[in-house]
Design a protein that fits this description.
Radius of gyration: 18 Å
Strand order of the largest sheet: 1-2
Oligomer: single chain
Order of helices and strands: HHHHHEEHHHHHHHH
Structural class: mainly alpha
Largest sheet: 2 strands, antiparallel
Length: 257
């Protein structure tokens, strides 16, 4: 009972901006429930063909469009083409309430880890064009953003973003996402969520440690510079890191096949 009261209190603390997202996901949640009831596949992790998976994940694609979805009070990111390990980690994080969104928490609550990985693997194989980059920020903001992304700030104990997310910023297999093609407001919101503790990853949560070392201006600089970067011709995640990551980052183990 105390756990449930804690969950309800956490929900009340959610940003008002999630209201529109919740409305959109409600339709998807109903679809998931109907499909689960009719097939039983979600609960038991049955393997599906590509066409069958496309039908089953309509609850996801209804909101997570191929280029993301801009809302007046928020943004729903694209999940197409991101590393399967990263997508799987986020689904499990929602299931375990390390990330909080009422619709996402509800949608994945009763799905097996095997099926969550199937969903992640399906979307990882969907490669679609990225949206156009945003306008360039001011020179001072751009210089600071580029420094943090490619060099970091040794004095502040901030490693370069590219050290983990790849020199092309397209992510690294199996668990590190791309940073390109995302709006400035979304990047700022996610970094801010780690700073205030409303977003978590599996321990050790390296992003939580890094964001505590960034001030508000740094968050703005990183987000503005990243959002303005041109999309590289090859948007695939790197198969492996070029250098050892500067920090140990936790990950949810993939289900055994």
């Amino acid at each position: 009972m105390a756990h449930k009261r804690g969950q309800r209190a956490a929900y009340r603390r959610e940003d008002v901006a999630t209201v529109s997202v919740i409305r959109l996901f409600f339709i998807g949640a109903l679809l998931v429930s109907a499909l689960a009831a009719s097939t039983g596949a979600f609960a038991h992790g049955a393997t599906a063909s590509g066409d069958a998976m496309a039908d089953r994940v309509e609850a996801c694609t209804a909101c997570h469009g191929p280029q993301g979805l801009e809302l007046e009070d928020g943004y729903i990111p694209r999940i197409h083409g991101k590393p399967a390990g990263y997508l799987y980690n986020q689904l499990v994080n929602y299931q375990d309430y390390r990330r909080r969104n009422r619709s996402m928490n509800h949608m994945v609550a009763h799905l097996s880890h095997e099926y969550l990985y199937e969903i992640a693997d399906y979307f990882a194989d969907q490669h679609v064009p990225y949206p156009a980059p945003a306008a360039a920020p001011s020179d001072a903001l751009a210089r600071r953003g580029e420094q943090l992304v490619h060099e970091g700030d040794e004095k502040a104990g901030v490693p370069a973003c590219a050290a983990c997310h790849g020199q092309r910023l397209t992510g690294v297999e199996p668990n590190t996402p791309a940073l390109i093609g995302l709006p400035r407001q979304y990047i700022m919101a996610q970094l801010g969520a780690w700073q205030v503790g409303t977003r978590h990853a599996a321990a050790p949560d390296c992003m939580a440690r890094i964001t505590q070392r960034l001030d508000g201006r740094d968050v703005e600089a990183v987000a503005a510079w990243l959002a303005a970067q041109p999309i590289p011709s090859d948007t695939r995640a790197l198969e492996s890191a070029v250098v050892d990551p500067p920090l140990e980052c936790g990950s949810v183990p993939a289900p055994e096949s």
